[in-house]
Design goal:
- With 329 residues, the protein is an alpha+beta fold.
- The protein has 2 domains: 2-178, no CATH class; 182-320, Cyclophilin-like (Cyclophilin).
- It has helices spanning 33-43, 160-172, 207-215, 283-290, 305-328; strands spanning 2-5, 9-13, 51-55, 60-62, 67-80, 83-85, 91-93, 98-114, 182-186, 189-198, 218-220, 228-232, 243-248, 253-256, 262-265, 272-275, 277-281, 297-302.
- The strands form 3 sheets. Strands 1, 2, 3, 4, 5, 6, 7 and 8 form an 8-stranded antiparallel beta sheet that branches.
- A hairpin with a 5-residue loop joins strand 14 and strand 15.
- The chain is globular, with a radius of gyration of 20 Å.
Length: 329
Amino acid sequence: MKILVPGPLTTVQDMGRRAHAAKGYPECGACDKYALALGNLLCGNEEGQAALEMTLSGATVAFEKPALFVLSGAQANATLDDRPVPMHEPVRACAGSTLQIGPFAEGLRGYLCVRGGIAVPPVLGNRSTDLKCHIGGLQGRALRSGDVLPIGPEPSGTTAESLRHAAGILREKPWLLRPRTAHAYLENQVIPLLRAVPGPQQDAFTEEGMRAFFSGLYGVTPDSNRMGIKLSGPSVQTIDGSDILSDGIVEGSVQISANGQPILMLADHQTTGGYAKIATVITPDLSAAAQLRPGQTAAFRAIDVREGVRLCRETAQQLRYIKELTIHA
């Protein structure tokens, strides 16, 4: 698969580089892991196969051999040899075919999953691109025009017919295409309510600060990236400043910076940080957060650990159901 036009930021990503944080390596991986898993399952892959993550606008690629692919994540206007390509449906490309993915009509990050996965060499057991450490993916960098990516051997166990049938069932059940994130409506805006477990440093904040965080509306600022979403809204008051001794950070951690504004950590988050963390957004709602564009609005809703675990299990069950569809449809 040859990259003709890479788009603003296109990288190879999978589910992330686990078990190396103690050495200072961030996990990386797809920002919208549900979209990656969904696209892979509809290709007949395992959920975590490496794919292309595209930001704001898609890439143009030429297939040098026949391939089956799926587009997921942000709503893309795409053509294969000038024929429209649907979202969330397996499509067969011939050798010499060109896939052109334009600007995203909705959402920020789209995924191009290919049956067999993108078979770049693993680094520390993983194929995700780490842009800061310059490892993984293709030479640890964003893709450029002229790059050629190997595609792995097609897995056995599913047929193109069963995959298309599964995609047809999902068209009738569109709520399965995303985690069930809660939303609020303000005039013509749809605002995701990012459910979060308070802590681990909630004692660093005043009661008024906690109320402001869990009741305010926050806009995504233009300097957000794969490392974190910087937000602007009601200031969150602390008792004695937001600085702490650096400790561990996970995807979904919400730090409060020195100016009282939240930063929601995404896939490329640092392994430790020195700002107090007011809450941790649950994994299913990180998919909605990852699709927020600068200028869009989000809010946070407090839940307890038990509710967070239930929601995570519910989302995992959705993916298990989709996997069963692809095998037995």
